[in-house]
Structure formats: C-alpha cells, structure tokens
Amino acid sequence: MQTRRIPVASILFYLAMFVYVAVVLGILLTVVLNSVSKGWYSGALPPFLTPEWYVYVAGEHDILNLLFVTFVVAVSVVGVSIIVAFPAAYALSRREFRGKAFLLSLFLLPMIVPPMTYGIPLAMMLYKVHLAARIIGVILSNLVPIVPFVILILMPFIEQVGVNLESAAKMLGARRLTVFRKILVPLTLPGILTAGILSIVRTISMFELTYLVAGGKSQTIVVALYADAYAAGARPPQAVDALAVIYFLTTMVCLVVALRFVSPTQMVFRIK
Amino acid sequence: MAKGFRGGTFLLLLPATTFVALLFVYPFIYGLILSFTDASGAITLGNFTHFFGDWWERRTIGVTLGISLPATLINVALAIPFAYYMRHGTRGEKVVTFFLIIPLTLGTVLVSEGMLTFMGPAGWLNQLIMLLGISPKPLRFTHNYTGVLLSLVIQGFPFAFLMILGYVSGINPDLEKASQMLGASKLQTFVRVLFPLMAPGIAICFCLNFVMAFSVFPSAVLLGEPSGPTRVIAYAAYQWAFEKFDFNMASAISMTMAAIELVVISIVLVWRNSIYRGASMVGKG
After folding, report:
1. Which domain holds residue A12?
2. Is residue A129 part of a domain?
3. pLDDT tens digits for A110-150?
4. What is the mean pLDDT of residues A188-199?
5. Same domain for A63 and A159?
6. Is a pLDDT exceeding 60 seen at residue B104?
7. Where is mean pLDDT largest: A62-66, B69-73, B91-95?
8. Nearest to B251 among A121, A143, A267 (CB)
9. Is A3 contained in some domain?
10. Any domain includes B170
11. Are residues A21 and A78 in the same domain?
12. Is A133 an interface residue toward B (CB < 8 Å)?
C-alpha cells in the first residue's frame, strides 16, 4: 500500500451523511412547498403557488389557541419540573441515605416504561377527577417523563459545585436560603438552562401522552397535526402540510435557541 | 456509608417522589389491577386469555417486534461505525449534527407527514428513481411495512448516533494510541480495546432505541397499514381504550407491552454484563 490510499472511510462517511441530509431536506422541503402549492400532481415543482391553504387552516383551527396551549404547556412543564426536580437532584447528588439506589431507579422507570403503559391508566385517572381534556391535565401527564429527565440532567451539574463553597458560606453565617440563592443557583445555572431548554423541546414534540388526555380546547399543535393527518381525505393534503409548517416553525425556533446553549450530543439523554 | 434518613433530605426528596408516586406509580398499579379485573371489578385472567387467544390481537406482538427489532438493529449497527469515524471530530461536524438533530426534534408526526409526500408515488424520491432508471414504475415506500421501518430509521439513527458518539468521545484517546504503539492494527484496536469499552453504552443505546421503536404508533398508523400488516401493539391498546372503551383490555395489552419490553431489555443487559467482564479480564492480562 505504498501508492496513494483512497480514503474509503471518509468517502463512505460523507456519502452516507449526504444521503441522510438529502432525505431530511427532501422531507422538509416537500412539506413546505406542498403547503403553498396548487395543482402539484406531478413534476419536480408545483405549477402554481398560493397562500390559500394557510387561510383554510386558520379557518379550520384556532391557530392562536393551539400555539397558546403549546406554549403554556411547555413553559409550565419546564417551570414545575425544575422546581420539583432541583431539591431532589440536590439530595441525590449530595446526601447519602438508605434506599438511594431504589429511588434512583424509580426516577429512571418513567423514561423506560412505554408511555402508553402508564399513559392509558393515567388518562383514565385524570378523566375521573375531571382534569383530563383540560390544559392542567395535559401539563400533569407531560410532567411524568420530564421530572426524572430534569433530575438526571441536573445531578452532574450539582456534583460539580464544590462542597467547600457551601460550607464556607454557612461558616460565614449564610442561611440555607442564602446559600441556595447566592451559591447553588448561580453555579448550576448552566445545568438549569440545559435542562429547561431540552425539556421544552421534548414537551413540544411529545405526542402520545398529550394525545391521550387532550381535548378539543387543550390540544397542542402536534396532536392537532396528527388528527388532521389521520383523517386524510377530510382535508386537502396541502392544508395538513400548512399546519405541519406552523408546527415545524415553532419547533425550529426552539431548536435554534436550544443549540446556542447545548450541544447536540446532550439532546439525547445518557444513563450510566 | 448510609447515614440514615435525615429530615432535611426527606423534605428535599418529598416533592419529586410525590409526583412520581402519584402520576406514575399509582397509574401503573391501577393499570395492573385493571388488567386483572373485568368491567364489574371481579378478578379474572379473561383479558389476557382474550388477548392471547385472539389471533388478530396476538399477532400485534409479532408485528411490533418485526418492525422494532430490525429498526433498532439497523440504527445501532449504522451508528457504531459512524460514531467511530467521528470520535475525534471531523470536518462539517456541526452541519452533520444539526441535520441529525432535526428529525429528533420534529417528532414522528411531522416526519411521517413529510414522508407521505416526499416518498409517495409522485414524490421527489420516486421522480429521482425513475429519472435514474432504477425502476420504470414508482416504488412503494408509504402505506406499508417499508414506510414504517424507514421512519423509525430516520428518527432512530440520529438518536443512536449521538448517544454512541457521546460514549466514544468519552474514551481516553491514550488507550487507542497505546494499543497502536504495541503493534495492534486498527481493526484489532477496535475489536479488543474500543468495542469492549463502548459495549455498555451500546447496550443502553440499544435499549432506549428499542423502547422508542417498540412503543411508537403515530408512524405505524400514518405511514403503514394500521388495519393489518402494521397494526402495532400500542395502537391496539389505544383502540381498546378510546375506541371500544374497554379499559381493562387496554390495560392488559399495555402491561403485556411493558413485559415484552422488559424481557428484551433484560436480554440486552445480560449480554452487556458478559461483554464487560470479558473486557476487564483483557485489561488485567
């Protein structure tokens, strides 16, 4: 092999990545183009462009309400999860106590058990106490996988903060709340941001749990999109794609914001 | 060393534990009870005998495994070489990871909806296939098994890739250098050094990817044939709960689903432990 070696590995790598990127772009571009097309039955590009499907979707759906519900659900889920998860993550990473391993695996379970398994009885339970088909029900069921998710993200960040800093603050007379406010929160802020952003992205695209409890007025965009796509034939496909574009834009805004703070490898959670 | 349960620790853990107990453990136990009772509340195995006795219901297990196992295997098998290649970073890394993260973020519903148009009979993919003369007629990628499998690969591959990349780039690069200095070839280094170190990560990645593929139903409904060949078990559970309003039967199906998943995960973890022990012995020798 003294002659020039052909970089087979690089060629294969970039070829495969090219194919993958082409497929993803193809999927997204057809959705966008189809949503503004008219009479696109064949050919590479639509013969006419029209905004009418967006007008149609706006007439069929209360778009503002969909966006509002999605926003309220995502923000509440993230807010509640961080408030609930932070103390737990602190206890789990700082204190030693009996049953710690058990508690850790309990927090892991909601991320491993299929959403349908606990989602169906959870939905029934929420219907019984009249919380389902309301925004609060959607928030509650979305909290199930997100609270453990936030705990797992926060734990390594809290472990990084030196115990000495806390002890020093206490010795200098700071009360617990002051230690929390002046030491813990500022030093774990990157972790809180990471957890918050990743949870928002996950909540917006969380389909199954929302689908099981959402009613007409408490739908998020992704559920409305599924319902429209499922009832293919009830609506023109271009109108379904118009709603898909609205969903796509919402998610992409969050993703672009997210990537300013976290790296893509952090988007998939890691368990040791 | 366990120090005993102090009051402060208890208070810190109380909110999260209450949440998980109320919204996860309680529904889970409730579902378990529902699956072993009938509509009147009497204890019975009837739901399970009905599910396993009815060919139409029983086959959802085979259908779901037949989609999710190949999809997971493809994803993990593809992710390992790609993550290996990118372990020290590469040109265009940012662009590549950005496009990988998009389908993950968008979720199954949008990917399925997009695939319907892009891979449909008149979509760009079939236009290209006919232009290149690969096939004179449009190929069928949607409303069948292929469509569901493809959607699981499009979504699952980036997940597996990014996860394994996280594990590989965490391996100390000195180990690789040492192995090569001792005369091992690239293949030997991979098989004897890197792969055993990656194995625990690969096992976890396989499990999580399988969980995603096994429990997903939007793509099986939108891209497949939910009335038959791709009627997955999650969709069967949904239909019993919200179309036939038989929550006992629905719970029995979803519990069966969790049990099957548990079996697959245990098999993978047993494999992981056997590999891992082997690796530590190589390290000592």
Report:
1. 8-50
2. yes
3. 888 888 899 999 999 999 999 988 999 999 999 999 999 99
4. 88
5. yes
6. yes
7. B69-73
8. A121
9. no
10. yes
11. no
12. no
How many structural domains are present in chain A? 2
A269 pLDDT band, cuts 50/70/90, is low
What's the pLDDT band for B151 if we cut at 50, 70, 90?
very high
Calpha distance B35→B237 (Å, rounded): 12
Copy the structure tokens of residue A42.
């064949």
A28 contact residues in B (CB cutoff 8 A): 102, 114
Question: Which whole number is the average pLDDT over A175-202?
Answer: 87
- B2 lies in some domain: no
Task: Tell me the pLDDT tens digit for each residue of A78-109.
Answer: 999 999 999 999 999 988 888 899 999 999 88
Run of H or E including A37: strand A37-38
β-pair partners for A235? A232
* Alpha carbon distances (Å) from B207 to A150, B72, B230, B250: 20, 9, 22, 24
Q: Are residues A156 and A187 in the same domain?
A: yes
Chain B residues with CB inside 8 Å of A113's CB?
A: 28, 258, 261
Q: With residue A130 as reference, give the H or E element that holds it.
A: none
**How many domains are there within chain B?**
1
Q: What is the pLDDT of residues B68-78, one digit of tens each?
A: 999 999 999 99
Whether B267 and B184 have beta carbons less than 8 Å apart is answered as no
A120, B237 contact by CB (below 8 A): yes
Select from B117, B197, B219, B246 the residue whose CB has the most chain A CBs within 10 Å, as the one to mutate to test that interface.
B117
Q: What is the pTM of this model?
A: 0.87
- Look at residue A204 and tell me if it is in a domain: yes
* Chain A, chain B: beta-carbon pairs less than 8 Å apart: 260
Measured between CB atoms, which of B90, B100, B258 is closest to A113? B258
- Contact list in B for residue A25 (CB cut-off 8 A) is 99
Q: Is the ipTM of this complex over 0.95?
A: no
Interface test with B, best of A116, A138, A204, A225 (most B CBs within 10 A): A116
- Say yes or no for a CB contact (<8 Å) between A225 and B109: yes
Residue of A229, A236, A209, A215 lying closest to A142 (CA atoms): A209
Q: What is the pLDDT of residue B285?
A: 30
- Does A119 lie in the same domain as A90? yes
- My answer on whether A124 and A138 are in the same domain is yes
Cα–Cα distance between A114 and B24 in angstroms, integer? 12
Q: Answer yes or no: is A1 within a domain.
A: no
In a domain, B91, yes or no: yes
A213: left (phi over 0), alpha (psi -120 to 50) or beta: alpha
Domain of A95: which CATH number?
Answer: 1.10.3720.10
State the smallest CA–CA distance between residue B169 and chain A in angstroms.
10
Q: Do A265 and B9 make contact, defined as CB atoms within 8 angstroms? A: no
CA distance B44 to chain A (A): 18
A-chain residues within 8 Å CB-CB of B234?
A: 114, 116, 208
Q: Which domain holds residue B198?
A: 56-284
